[in-house]
Amino acid sequence: MSEDKMTSSAALKSLAKLGWDGRIRGDTLRRNSLLYPLNAIFNQLQRQQSILDLETQRASLAQKLFDYLERIADEDYKPGAGKRGKIEQFINLFFDDLLGKVYHHNQQKLLADEKDIKAAYLFYIRAEIPQKEKDK
Predict the structure, then answer these.
(1) Within 10 Å of residue 34's Cβ, how many Cβ atoms?
(2) Dihedrals φ, ψ of 35, to 5°?
(3) How confident is the model over 19-78, as pLDDT tens digits?
(4) Do 132 and 24 form a contact (C-beta atoms < 8 A)?
(5) How far apart are CA 73 and CA 79, in angstroms?
(6) Cβ distance 42 to 103 under 8 Å?
(7) What is the DSSP string of 93-111?
(8) What dihedral do alpha carbons 109, 114, 120, 123 form, nearest 10°?
(9) Residue ranges of the domains in the chain?
(10) Residues 89, 17: contact at Cβ < 8 Å?
(11) What is the pTM of this model?
């Protein structure tokens, strides 16, 4: 999609697809678990200090999300480089597509729409869940 044609729904659908396919979520299919990555990003943006540049924020978020997924992982499986790459891709999609292309780097407008963004993301990620898993 070209830079000036990016819509919020397209950005959120991409995030939801990556979030589901990359298993970038908590350990259940409940609301808070599915929203965990977005909650972490918005929490960081809300308490942002101007001294941290965007690259530092991205690195910090990637490490926080990876640490969380590592903590909740089964003993038989520990996330590695592949999971770290998916997390970095998720964060880059958020900052490049949603914040950059949709909100034109206007962080205040993004934060003002936080509830709607989370609700739409939740809708889109639930649409990614295969029916069999929804029945569990």
Answers:
(1) 24
(2) -85, 0
(3) 999 999 988 999 999 999 999 999 998 887 667 788 888 999 999 999 999 898 877 677
(4) no
(5) 7
(6) no
(7) IIIIIIIIIITTT-HHHHH
(8) 170
(9) 3-131
(10) no
(11) 0.86
